[in-house]
Amino acid sequence: MAKVAVMMADGFEEIEALSVVDILRRADVDVSMVSLNNSIEVQGAHGVSLKADITFDEYEFKNADMIVLPGGLPGAEHLAKSHKLGQKLKEAKADNKKLAAICAAPWALSSAEVLGSEYTCYPGFEATVNHTGYNPNKNVVVDGNIITSRGPATAMEFALELVKELCGEQKYSQIKSGLLF
């Protein structure tokens, strides 16, 4: 069973985080909501509070097959400026693991110097990401082991692509059909 860490920082975009968690769990992926804070409590950008499953310091990143970064502000900024997360992203890339980011969160991949040659993000945010290869014409970009997406409205498409990457075409089709997507 694939294992995924969905990083949760205060100010995360709720739709992006919870769509990913929900859809991956429907696909029987072992998903952990990992709080970047020392607290298990995380506050979303639009006032939705949730309890993460585990804190950053407690999570065993070496066991994760993928790390997912939801966007939202200031959540993506917290991710981008976290040196400890940046180090885990570098280690994951070196170990050929999958990295995924949506909306403003490709900023964290760029800050950690792990973003691929092609990506997408929230329109207008590419200047903050500050990386060549921005593709404004796709909702989801897969560049090797790096998967990026544009924003809240593309969260379900993004999450389904993560299912395809982790579980294969059959599970992707099954989940997609069940969601009436």
UniProtKB/TrEMBL annotation:
Residues 2-165 form the DJ-1/PfpI domain. This is DJ-1 family glyoxalase III. It comes from Campylobacter vicugnae. The lineage of its organism: Bacteria, Pseudomonadati, Campylobacterota, Epsilonproteobacteria, Campylobacterales.
